[in-house]
Write a structure and sequence with these properties.
Layout: H1 2-21, E1 41-45, E2 52-57, E3 63-67, E4 72-73, E5 77-81, E6 86-95, E7 100-109, H2 118-124, E8 132-136, E9 147-150, E10 177-181, E11 187-191, E12 199-206, E13 211-215, E14 230-237, E15 240-245, E16 254-261
Antiparallel strand pairs: 1-2, 2-5, 3-4, 3-6, 6-7, 8-10, 8-16, 9-16, 10-11, 11-12, 12-13, 13-14, 14-15, 15-16
């Protein structure tokens, strides 16, 4: 009998010892505070149909950011001047708590009654719907620097020519042209020659980061360009545009492109 009591006591002590070693786990599970339908997105225009727009996400407990095409805003509310007339779709990307979501809102822009940043007018002209055509600032044998190898590193070295390739070995579209307009979208057309059928695409002008990106088409002189279509803007004025690549995928060096409006 005593032996049984001792065995039970030892077993009890054994169980207490190992249970004391078990970690205490405080499990917390993420839960959604609402569903996508419950996320309220609001667009307010400064004037009816105007192009100064405020986007707001008004649902408490939701975190995320606005993607409004021109840029992204890591806030629930952002105000900007939109350059393109027509219907625009803006996107809020966020978290419901336990899962991520995207939700869009459409805005109709009927008039550009708030002036754009000057860079837009320099690129596409003051008549933004009609747009503007650009060509190279020179031709083969002219001695001008319009398509040339330049140092890697930064846009500050863009106008330092290592090799004036355009003067001896011009690209196939040296006499071509490119057209930018904002007629319902950020439209871009590349012409291999002045009379060729255009290769249509779109573009993004990133003023804050000084970048011009071409989508689904090619920049003039893209024989030295990169597949992503992203170019650094060295300068953009009404009568001249200089673009730069830090590292041409073709040549492994910097490369500079100089354009002027079509005469």
């Amino acid at each position: 009998m005593k032996i049984n009591k001792i065995i039970y006591l030892l077993l009890a002590l054994f169980m207490l010892t190992f249970s004391a070693c078990d970690p205490i786990v405080d499990e917390k599970h993420l839960e959604n505070s609402t569903d996508v339908a419950g996320v309220e997105l609001v667009a307010t225009q400064s004037t009816p149909g105007g192009n100064k727009i405020t986007l707001s996400m008004n649902t408490p407990g939701i975190t995320g950011y606005w993607d409004y095409g021109l840029d992204k805003a890591l806030t629930n509310e952002v105000t900007f001047v939109y350059p393109i007339p027509g219907k625009a779709t803006f996107t809020f990307v966020g978290s419901l708590g336990a899962e991520f979501f995207t939700k869009t809102i459409d805005v109709q822009i009927n008039q550009l009654d708030t002036p754009l940043d000057q860079d837009w007018y320099d690129l596409v002209g003051t008549n933004t719907v009609a747009g503007k055509t650009w060509v190279f600032d020179g031709e083969q044998g002219s001695g001008r620097f319009w398509w040339f190898m330049s140092p890697n590193g930064s846009a500050e070295s863009a106008m330092t020519a290592w090799w004036n390739a355009g003067d001896c070995c011009a690209p196939s579209d040296a006499k071509g042209q490119m057209h930018f307009d904002l007629n319902g979208a950020a439209n871009y057309n590349h012409y291999e020659t002045a009379t060729a059928t255009p290769k249509k695409g779109t573009f993004k002008l990133d003023i804050k980061n000084k970048q011009l990106t071409i989508f689904n088409s090619t920049m003039l002189g893209s024989a030295a360009g990169n597949k992503d279509g992203v170019y650094t803007i060295v300068s953009l004025e009404a009568n001249k545009m200089v673009l730069y690549l830090n590292n041409s995928e073709t040549y492994g060096t910097g490369w500079t492109f100089v354009f002027v409006p079509q005469p």
